[in-house]
Design a protein that fits this description.
The chain has about 150 residues and is α/β, with parallel strands linked by helices. The chain has 4 helices and 5 strands; from the N terminus they run H-E-E-E-H-E-H-E-H. The chain has one domain: Glutaredoxin. A 5-stranded mixed sheet has the order 2-1-5-4-3, with helices on both faces. Strand 4, helix 3 and strand 5 form a beta-alpha-beta unit. The longest helix has 29 residues. The two termini are about 20 Å apart.
């Protein structure tokens, strides 16, 4: 059962990656630039304590992963895979951004996000903030997150 769940999540992540790549290829071939990022305006806190807004998502293609630091399987696995893809697609780290947004901001402080993400990648930045503001962003990106 555990192996099946891992394989299923890997398939979902790979499919998401393929769709993201196809989207990049289509938009690049048409030379179109989006007006703004998917989602809603937000003001949260990056892992280094600095404020971060939706403007950070505008300068280059950006991968956004929602999860939490106490996630036992899917989050660390996905972050390791995302890190691998970032290094394959953008070896010098100048063309893509990647962010890990906490859906458990009560426990995931910016400092904890920094420690957690730095164990996985030097290219992915952690984002947290006040619970109400984080949940506004989560809903704006049409992500379903529930405490169980």
């Amino acid at each position: 059962m555990k192996t099946f769940r891992i394989v299923l999540w890997l398939a979902v992540v790979i499919l998401a990656g393929v769709l993201a790549w196809l989207t990049l290829e289509v938009t690049r071939s048409k030379q179109q630039v989006a007006e703004g990022p998917f989602g809603v305006p937000f003001e949260l806190v990056a892992q280094d304590g600095s404020p971060i807004t939706e403007a950070a998502f505008r300068d280059k293609p950006t991968a956004v992963f929602f999860g939490f630091t106490h996630c036992p399987e899917v989050c660390p696995t996905t972050l390791f895979e995302l890190n691998t893809w970032l290094h394959q697609v953008d070896p010098d780290g100048t063309k893509l951004n990647a962010y890990f947004v906490s859906v458990d901001p009560e426990r995931d402080t910016p400092e904890l996000m920094g420690q957690y993400v730095s164990n996985v990648s030097d290219r992915i930045r952690g984002i947290s903030g006040p619970p109400a503001k984080v949940m506004e962003m989560v809903k704006g990106f049409r992500v379903l997150a529930r405490k169980v």
